[in-house]
Design a protein that fits this description.
This protein is α/β, with parallel strands linked by helices and 712 residues long. The chain has five domains: 102 residues, GIY-YIG endonuclease (3-Layer(aba) Sandwich); 214 residues, P-loop containing nucleotide triphosphate hydrolases (Rossmann fold), CATH 3.40.50; 198 residues, P-loop containing nucleotide triphosphate hydrolases (Rossmann fold, 3-Layer(aba) Sandwich); 60 residues, no CATH class; 100 residues, ACT domain (Alpha-Beta Plaits). 31% of the residues lie in helices and 21% in strands. The protein contains 18 helices and 28 strands. The protein has a seven-stranded parallel sheet with strand order 8-9-7-10-11-6-12, sandwiched between helices. A six-stranded parallel sheet has the order 13-23-22-14-21-20, sandwiched between helices. A five-stranded antiparallel sheet has the order 2-1-4-3-5. Helix 13 links the parallel strand 20 and strand 21. Helix 5 packs across helix 6. The longest helix is centred in the last third of the chain and has 20 residues. The radius of gyration is 28 Å and the shape is globular. The chain starts with a strand and ends in a 5-residue tail after the last strand. It binds adenosine-5'-diphosphate and zinc ion (2 copies). Adenosine-5'-diphosphate binds next to helix 6.
Amino acid sequence: MTHLLSVLVQTPAHSPVARPLTYESELLLPPGSLVRVPFGKREMLGVVWDTRDDADAPLMDPGKLRAVAGALEGITPLSATWRQLVGFAADYYQRSLGEVALAALPPQLRDLTPKQMERRIKRHAKAGASDLQESSGTTNSVALSAEQTGAIVQFDTQKGPFLLFGTTGSGKTEVYLHAVQTLLARDPDAQAILMVPEINLTPQLEARVRARFATLYGEDAVVSLHSGMTNPQRLKSWLAAHNGTARIVLGTRMAVFASMPHLQLIVVDEEHDPSYKQQEGARYSARDLAVYRGRLEGAKVMLGSATPSLETWHHSRPAAEGGRYVRLEMPSRIGENSELPFVRRVDMNNQPKKAVFSTPLLEAIRERVARGEQSMVFLNRRGYAPVLACSACDWKSQCPHCSAFRVFHKIDRTLRCHHCGFTERVPRACPECGNVDISPVGRGTEQLEEHLAELLTDVRRPNSVSALFPEGEPVRVARIDADSTRLKGALESQLARVHSGEVDVLVGTQMIAKGHDFRRITLVAAVNPDGALFSSDFRAPERLFSLLMQAAGRAGRDATITSRSEMWIQTFHPAHPLFEALKRHDYPAFAAQQLKEREQAGMPPFSFQALVRADARTQEAAQGFLTTASAAAAVQLADLPGFDQVTLYPAVPMSIQRIADVERAQMLVESPSRAALQRFLSTWHAVLHATRALPECKGLIRWAVDVDPLTI
Ligand code: ADP
Ligand code: ZN
Ligand code: ZN
């Protein structure tokens, strides 16, 4: 007998065939089976979504149906819960099922023929078997602190989801590892996901997890999943997770979709980190999906941060006030006498105009160098200067393709657009008027590095630092940012130089503020953080506070020097409440003040948002599409339950309105009810499609919905 199957394939985001397609099959393949199916002239990977032998079968024209080309033997079907997770994500983030499902699978599954796949799986099975060794039974865990023990006891005895609210250096990682270890020891099948923001920024963590579990469960027990891996590596990890041999998946946001038959724990480290939000295609939040998945599969979920997102913080308020997460608190740093760094604010109003480094900060850095300690200076702008300008006319280094300036990179004398990549050599004279006096305006990390080296030329290193680096040598300033780490392995080698003590002062972007366990840094300085205080983006203060707390957390991690570690803030607004809270390391006070403002203004987490973005050749076309679709909604969806709770704002240009010659516009949709917003969005979807097909929207290139956007 021939069966009808509905199959998901990877269709372009807005193609008319976004629904599952129907195919015939001699075999009754269960839902979740991976198959190859003909699609147009090609053959593609598909996921069997459903068998449709009864319901819709009579509607299909049997003459037109094509047959499934073959099943991927040896791979067990994806579980019902995995499919439910994909279904939820597609629905919630307004994308097609096929797109979400196929993007959640390793790319090589799509490319390999069934024959190649078979060979891969066999090889993998063999390798897995040979690695199965008796566990030595040794553990390298440490004696837990009282706060760690307290957190773990609560974690073991309650259901969660949990927020592990622990200050930087309080030993959160140890708690995660302990929770994983307890679980794996208790249940020989159990699996866990450990999610981190950007694995390549924290190579230490990966090493730590592997070291901890390889001796217990074999080298194959821990697999990684992130975009820095090759496709064969990713497939290997994925298969190990899928067939249950991998006990721990350590990965970035994509790991939330890992297929795991015995998932019982999901840890999301640094849960506030923006990199958990996918920024293209299905714009999902891996953190939010982790919480959903945990509930779905009965797996425990632990989110951890020293500066939780305000959404998560709000969820973890006391249950009596409506909180849904259990808050586990670890306010102290590990180690005796280890304190958080002392925060100093330098009022830049009292410093010479245009001073990059205030006198006291420079003095403090000199002292550090003389004592053989390290300093870290950060500025969130790479390059030498954000703009190059002519002194005689109006010329500025505008990008011809974007509404943004090209950044001056002195190192190779180029002007580079950080949005579209357009790069040119710096002109010898002003392209407008021929004036040779064109000069940098503002400053980036490259300039900071150069400037610091000049200011510190007369300082000599002491002989006590290390025998490797002789006494009396000039100061070494190093820079770590996206430019200095472009080459493979560059970041690792630069970090190693900092760890070894070769570097005295490290300059960089937020890349250096996150996660690294630098032991000898006793001074961290933010030279110009004011921009975020008055940004139009309501989340900017939240991001700044967490960045500064993280950065401060880099200082004094070694208990022997912790008592003299300092965080310096150069600001024109020293009395700003954000800096007041930072000085006291008081995240709860900062969060309370922010949440109060958000509540008064009806902003998340007290309301729910979605953005519809439109790209077109002209700004009129981009906005026109949004305006038309919005007007159509007002007419066609007026009777939709909850429509009166949804606010559609006017279409506006995006903050960088043109990138690579494409005009961008957006429209904010907001509601105090998540359900009302969801209902509206899923109904509006068809209207947006129909609007796109109108002749007057010809100029539109693409549109997309971003649910729970991180930047407005
Ligand atoms: P967090 O992730 O909260 O910033 P970490 O987990 O990195 O903190 O821990 C900070 C430091 O303290 C690390 O060097 C870690 O090895 C150490 N540490 C954690 N827990 C303990 C403990 N119970 N005893 C001794 N050292 C610990
Ligand atoms: Zn000029
Ligand atoms: Zn550009």
